[in-house]
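A.,

Following up on our hallway conversation. Structure tokens first:
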């Protein structure tokens, strides 16, 4: 059998990678959101090419999403929480991103990813923006329960479940983007994801209350997030 003229099949794409290609159409907030949901590889391409309009619109999308989600959480208690909760939610995720960005760059390098800090920041922003869009999609559910129940423990559990779902899809996008940029393994990056999740959960406790009411804007005592959850669960029961 003559195999000399048999064409060599093209290499299979790396598992979990995405197709990186230019965006189609004008770069607007709605188009960036649509591409992030349907064609995240196009968002990655624009960020990798140094297109600043895309990261700025990702940032705007994240701010809107987390602010609306925080507003509906604040509607559970009303009063000052209507402005304090969205401020705390948005501030908490922003601080968590700034705190964890340097370690993300280091862990990505350890996993073999050759990318500039600006590219790593854009990838992280894409993941956070996607998580925010998931929370925005769950906003009507939060509103229904915030206006029909007075159980602080249940509302906290519901918000946590939605945040975990958002983090899951955001983390998956982060890993896919890293693989598409040439990451060789994902061991260190998965460790970083666990650290980032813990930081966001601790930020929700450090900026408490977000759901309930308090005499002060910020807490006056330090508390670990698991300890805070258990105390509130016991008080609600």
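Then the amino acids I'd put at each of the 237 positions:
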């Amino acid at each position: 059998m003559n195999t000399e003229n048999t064409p060599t099949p093209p290499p299979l794409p790396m598992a979990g990678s995405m197709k990186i290609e230019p965006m189609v159409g004008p770069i607007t907030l709605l188009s960036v959101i649509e591409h992030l949901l349907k064609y995240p590889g196009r968002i990655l391409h624009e960020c990798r090419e140094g297109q600043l309009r895309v990261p700025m619109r990702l940032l705007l999308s994240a701010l809107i999403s987390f602010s609306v989600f925080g507003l509906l959480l604040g509607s559970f208690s009303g009063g000052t929480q209507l402005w304090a909760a969205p401020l705390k939610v948005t501030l908490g995720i922003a601080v968590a991103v700034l705190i964890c960005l340097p370690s993300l760059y280091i862990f990505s390098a350890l996993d073999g990813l050759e990318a500039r800090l600006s590219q790593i920041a854009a990838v992280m922003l894409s993941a956070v923006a996607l998580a925010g869009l998931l929370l925005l999609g769950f906003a009507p559910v939060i509103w229904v329960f915030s206006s029909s129940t007075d159980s602080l423990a249940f509302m906290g559990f519901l918000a946590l479940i939605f945040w975990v779902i958002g983090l899951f899809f955001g983390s998956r996008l982060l890993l896919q983007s890293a693989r598409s940029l040439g990451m060789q393994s994902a061991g260190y990056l998965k460790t970083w994801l666990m650290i980032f999740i813990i930081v966001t959960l601790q930020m929700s406790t450090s900026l408490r209350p977000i759901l309930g009411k308090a005499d002060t804007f910020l807490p006056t005592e330090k508390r670990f997030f698991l300890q805070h959850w258990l105390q509130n669960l016991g008080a609600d029961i």
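The radius of gyration is 20 Å. Curious whether your intuition agrees with the design.

B.
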